[in-house]
Amino acid sequence: MKRGWWLAAAAGMAVLAGTQAVGSGDPGPLLDYVTSHALHPIDRAALAAGRVGIVKPDAPAAVRYLDWRLLNGLDTGADVTEQLATPCCGDWQDLTGAWLAARREVPGVATDLYWISTERDGPNYTSIPTCFGDAFTTAAATLKARVAAHGAGSPWVRAWVAGQDAVFAACSKPGVSLPPLDPAAPAWLRADRLYQQAALALYDGRLADADRTFADIGRDPQSPWQKLALYLQTRTAQRAALTTRDPAAFARAHAAIATLAAAPDGTYGKGEIGRMQQVLDYNEHPAALRDRLDQALNAKPATPDIAVKFKDYWSLSNDKAERPEAADWIATLGTRDRAEGLAHATARWQATHRNAWLLAALSLAGRTDAGAAALADAAGRVPADDPAWLTARYHWLRLRMGSGADAPLRDQADAILARTDLTPSDRNIFLAIRTQLATSLADFATHALRQPYCQEGQADCLGYAGAISDGQLARRGAGWVAFGSDATLLIDRLPLPVRLELARSTDLPTELRLDLTLTNYTRAVLLRDDAAVDETARALVTLLPQVRGDWQRILRTAPGADKRFAEIFVMTKIPSLRADLADYHRPSGTTASFGGYWEAWLVQPPRGPNALRFPPAGAYGDGWWNRRESGSDDSAVDRTCDSKCGAPFPIHLAPFAVPLQDTALRERSAYRTIADLPEGTAGGKTLWEAALAYVAAHPKDPRAGETLYRLIRVGRWGGNANQMGKRAFRLLHTRYPGTIWAKRSPYYYN
After folding, report:
1. In angstroms, rounded to a whole number, what is the distance separating the alpha carbons of residues 676 and 692?
2. pLDDT given for residue 684 in this prediction
């Protein structure tokens, strides 16, 4: 049954009834290390307690307004935080889930209904919300009551469900009709059907029909919906005004609201009078409403329905030339024009001396901006008991990093990390800063791990099982940890001996040691470092036991061509192997389930320029969606706050790693792949061609058939240089036609 059809009244405006709040949009489940949406209970509890944390300019406007209140000493608390941080309308599962679950309990109804559209198409490719969550909640509760009274198997209950299905179909489709009702239907069903008829007429835009039907319901003392009738007529009049934009219709809506206001105390819906009037004011007197809302929203005690008021306030203020101060701050903080926003925020800070404006200016300031030094000095003077302190300290560190001695910055980061009131997000940010200030490999390892927002006890992280196998997460106690993207970047810029030392650390979780050791193994093979190959293989006997026999064969084979082939043979089984963590994925499950694409490493590069570089900063971060952004500017990539805290925090190479860079870069000449060659470059020999050549020269090797089988797949999924897949196919079917490997390879890939 529909009770919340009034929730949306006009394009560009949301008006809520009951306790539903309007706040931030839901970004969906992400493997977050830094969050700006305040969706997690930990973050909400901190905000409710008055702890601002690091202000995130990319946070939803409602969360930025919550920051504004906290920065200016205005009351918040749990209720205010919940309203402002709660996503506006949820998703369709939240809206319709209770109803869909309830109707499935009725035998004989259609069971293939899994989704209900709650919007109608509007002009210019827009969508207009029509049905809202409380409609489905009420329908589910009413159905349960009817089942309790008449039985789930009652044909009249099924008829009720059929009618309600039609009502909800009208949420998105015009011209829907209620199914015919049997003349023998009981009185309770006829009363409910009349209400369904009115709700459907309302959704379908037949407002006069809806008004007449609600009036009929109001005159029927036997109807269970009679007490709602006056209120619903008032809402229908309001909808007519907003739909037609006719002055006479607005006058009728005002009269209907006045009639409801004059009704006896306890009349259903009297508590909605103020909101209904606000809807009309939004459309008739927007400037006056905005000013009233600004006054209410900047009062020290929080106004009731604060999220509803803010939604209208922001809609009436955003993208306007003249804005009230709170809206101006929210808009400036999230501006896309950094230079203009920085100038405006700086001017407002100098004029008002409000730390909120200082934070806005800091968030927009880059290290090379003319006023950055003065802003950093001001950030350093913010008192520790000021709500702006943590954000100011973050930007102080960001703007000072790389411009002087690291020791004072390291001391500041250590002092902040010693606090017990940091949210996981803010702790991860300061850990990233501290990692970039590490003085030794051990110091680096102490700060390199981050805790993502995952629920304890889950078998995966936020419903994404792949996050565990993508070289991201590792178990620590009941939760998860992973290397921060800034830490991963630095690890990839370390030479092999230092990476080997890091992988030996038993303080690291086993899964992360596996990731390090596999990438170290790949490097060792490409560098032809037999000692490093043996060290990594020895560790991998335990860390990746699915191919234990291959690791053991490597260990017992003397250096030379046979050992080289044993090293490559195991690599044909693990397509996700990489020399860098940037695009590596952790193998999981059985050998047959190892996924990914093989790299076409060059063991004999063609002659020509050998431009060596590390993976760009853009290749790291963004949860499991790592991508190589070869053209990215490292100074514009933020691996500390994931671009959520304002101007980028460029990577600062940890002091202990700086003298290692030349060695690490020289090593990279061995990690080149076909993809690294300039377009049109010919020649060169890949690691896989070396394996093919070995098999061709050793026809009696027991691994020959399997190697050819795997090389066919390498040719398909790892670059088919020099028609390697075709050559492997022909050799397999010529020499080993009756083997299982030939039977599994009926064709090759061009």
Report:
1. 22
2. 76
pTM given for the model: 0.84
pLDDT (tens digit per residue) in 547-572: 999 999 999 999 999 999 999 999 99
Distance CA 156, CA 178 (A): 15
Report the C-alpha gap between 216 and 182 in whole angstroms.
Answer: 21
Q: Supply 615's token pair.
A: 């993976």
Tell me how far apart the alpha carbons of residues 35 and 643 are, in angstroms, rounded to a whole number.
11
- In DSSP notation, 378-439 reads HHHTS-TTSTTHHHHHHHHHHHHTTSS-SHHHHHHHHHHHT-S---HHHHHHHHHHHHTT-S
The region of weakest confidence among 69-73, 121-125, 558-562, 658-662 is: 121-125
508 closest CA partner among 425, 458, 441, 411: 441
In the prediction, which pLDDT does 370 show? 93
| Token representation of residue 462 | 């936020």
Q: How far apart are CA 511 and CA 518, in angstroms?
A: 11
Note the Cα 401 to chain centre separation in Å: 28
How distant is the alpha carbon of residue 26 from its chain centre? Answer: 8
Structure tokens of 463? 């419903």
Determine which helix (DSSP H) or strand (DSSP E) holds 479, and give its type and residue range. strand 479-483
When pLDDT is averaged across residues 373-402 and rounded to a whole number, the result is 97
Q: Tell how far CA 294 is from the center of its chain.
A: 31
pLDDT at 30 over 60: no
Give the side-chain half-sphere CA count within 13 A for 196: 28
Confidence grade of residue 31 (pLDDT, cut at 50, 70, 90): low
Q: How many Å apart are CA 666 and CA 632, to the nearest integer?
A: 22
Task: List residues bridging with 685 in a β-sheet.
Answer: 604
Query: Do 583 and 597 touch, CB atoms closer than 8 A?
Result: no
The DSSP element (H or E) to which 474 belongs, if any, is strand 474-476
**For tokens 């090379």, what's the residue?**
368
Q: Which residues, 6 or more positions from 53, have their beta carbon under 8 angstroms from its beta carbon?
A: 43, 46, 47, 390, 391, 422, 423, 425, 426
- Please tell me the number of Cα atoms within 13 Å of 723 on its side-chain side: 6
pLDDT in tens, 314-356: 999 988 889 999 999 999 999 999 999 999 999 999 999 999 9
Residue that is written with structure tokens 């909605």 in the block: 272
Region of 683 (left: φ > 0; alpha: ψ -120 to 50; beta: rest) is left
Tokens of 91: 């998703």
pLDDT for 644 beyond 60: yes
Cα gap 706→570, rounded to integer Å: 11
What are the counts of helices (DSSP H) followed by strands (DSSP E) for the chain?
33, 7
Beta bridge partners of 479: 476
Looking at the DSSP bridge assignments, the partners of residue 449 are: 483
Helix (H) or strand (E) holding 603: strand 602-604
Q: Measure Cα distances from 379 to 71, 116, 652 in Å.
A: 14, 51, 20
Rounded Cα–Cα distance for residues 451 and 371 (Å): 35
Query: Among all chains, which residue has been given the structure tokens 């409380």?
Result: 134
CA torsion sign for 409, 410, 413, 415 is negative
Q: Kindly report the number of other CB atoms within 10 A of residue 251's CB atom.
A: 12
For residues 229 and 218, give the distance between their C-alpha atoms in angstroms, rounded to a whole number. 5
- What is the rounded CA–CA span in Å between residue 716 and residue 9? 56
Q: How far apart are CA 741 and CA 719, in angstroms?
A: 21
Structure tokens at 170: 């009208």
Cβ distance 365 to 371 under 8 Å? yes
Task: Go through the chain and tell me how many residues it has.
Answer: 750
pLDDT value at position 721? 76
Please state, in angstroms and as integers, the Cα–Cα distance from residue 556 to each residue in 521, 550, 702, following that order: 16, 10, 17
- 586-632 confidence digits (pLDDT tens): 998 899 999 889 999 998 776 666 668 899 998 887 543 333 344 45
Question: Sign of torsion, CA 277 279 282 283?
Answer: negative
